[in-house]
Specification:
single chain; alpha+beta; 20% strand; globular
Length: 295
């Protein structure tokens, strides 16, 4: 599933492309991926102008001039790819990633949003778990997910004291499970949990109550550093993720442990191992992240 850096990368791309453009048509082939009443679509979506593109945790929010918003959850395999009007836009034919955008729509395309200037936004989702929901913008804070989700780890108002306090509420769970809990902190998934725990030299199976305040402070720093680097590199591409222009991200070229099993730890040269923590495949250095040293 795309994590905070991937969704933020898509948001930044769309934020430069969509605002000011008007939506002229919508087609879809999977009702569960576009669960909206036709009257709402006709009244609040068609003819509306995109005002802004926001992100909260792993969710995109496209605000419209009608006072409604499209909430987009990419889930496991979702993509939002913008293809400009040929000859009128820099992301039309001849784009460096024509291998993707030149063949859209394809069998994974669930929703096609056509803009008044001829550009198109494709929502692709091979596994069909993602969705686009039209809701009143004013009601977004009252949706259960948004009420329960934790703070943004890169927010300027989120500090180390806040970070420690939120994790200490989960003192009897593993530190990795707490990192993955969207109610503790927003947007962190398996990749950046492993990467930040390696950076802080914390074994993922360590109980939160066994992690010192000093180590939690270090984990805060490492998490922010990893997330910022991943955003700079356009996210971590697997076989499905691309940014708003249809391009892959390159963070995996800089990963220290994730999917590096059998390779040398960048810090101590011990072989990276893959295990299972919090129900997820987990990558560690058995020397740098010794469990007994932290228990």
């Amino acid at each position: 599933m795309p994590e905070l850096p991937e969704v933020e990368t898509v948001r930044r791309g769309l934020a430069t492309l969509l605002p000011g453009r008007r939506i002229s048509a919508i087609t879809y082939d999977w009702p569960k991926g576009f669960p909206n009443a036709k009257t709402d679509v006709d009244t609040f979506l068609l003819g509306s102008q995109v005002v802004a593109v926001r992100r909260r945790a792993k969710v995109l929010i496209i605000d419209l001039s009608t006072g409604y918003s499209l909430i987009v959850h990419l889930k496991m395999t979702g993509q939002l790819v913008y293809v400009g009007n040929v000859g009128a836009d820099r992301f039309g034919a001849g784009h460096p990633n024509d291998s993707l955008i030149g063949r859209l729509p394809d069998s994974s395309t669930r929703v096609v949003t056509t803009l008044a200037d001829g550009a198109v936004l494709y929502f692709n989702d091979q596994r069909k778990f993602g969705w686009m929901k039209l809701v009143p913008t004013i009601e977004i804070p009252n949706i259960d997910f948004f009420k329960k989700v934790g703070p943004e780890p890169l927010s300027t108002t989120f500090n180390k004291a806040d970070f420690r306090s939120r994790f200490q509420r989960r003192k009897n769970t593993t530190i990795k499970a707490a990192l993955l809990d969207q109610g503790v902190i927003a947007g962190v998934g398996n990749i950046y949990a492993d990467e930040s725990l390696w950076g802080a030299k914390i074994h993922p199976a360590t109980l939160v109550k066994k992690v010192s305040p000093q180590k939690l402070n270090l984990l805060f720093d490492e998490l922010q550093w990893v997330l910022r680097l991943a955003i700079e590199k356009g996210g971590s591409t697997n076989k499905n993720y691309v940014n708003a222009e249809g391009k892959p991200g390159s963070y995996m070229d800089f990963a220290r442990v994730f999917r590096r099993e059998g390779q040398a730890c960048p810090r101590c040269k011990t072989g990276i191992e893959k295990t299972r923590v919090a129900g997820r495949g987990t990558h560690i250095c058995p020397k740098c992240q010794r469990y007994k040293a932290l228990a």
